[in-house]
Amino acid sequence: MIYKSIMLLHNRIAVLRAERKLSRAALASSVGVNPQTIGFLERGDYMPSLELAFKIAEHFGLPVEAVFSPRPFRTLSEQVYEMHKREA
Fold first, then answer.
1. What are phi and psi of 2, to 5 degrees?
2. CB-side exposure of 57: number of CA atoms within 13 Å?
């Protein structure tokens, strides 16, 4: 029997848009998709093509692995707290 595995892809699109005060429509226009597609991506309801993932990462000026990950991203507070613990 062949089992099909569906990979969940996590992303930081909503956070990156908020940081830059960028609307879904503006990002969608920049990468050539419908604004609804950006919403589907943000909610994890849609898996981007490799081309779209690279376009989105390029739009934000980040490497693709900073925007998309097969594992959940750690929260900023977790990252900052860990950094401060190492410095102490």
1. -100, 130
2. 16
Please give the C-alpha separations between residue 57 and each of 2, 3, 23, 31, 49, in angstroms, as whole numbers. Answer: 34, 31, 16, 10, 12
Maximum separation of any 2 CA atoms in the chain, in Å: 53
Between the CA atoms of 83, 84, 86 and 88, what dihedral angle is there, to the nearest 10 degrees?
Answer: 170
Distance CA 82, CA 17 (A): 25
- DSSP 3-state of 32: coil
Domain 10-87 has CATH 1.10.530.10: no
Q: Quick one: tokens of 50? A: 């490799």
Residue corresponding to tokens 């929260």: 75
Q: Which two tokens stand for residue 70?
A: 């097969």
Give per-residue pLDDT as tens, 16-30: 999 999 999 999 999
Stated pTM of the model: 0.80
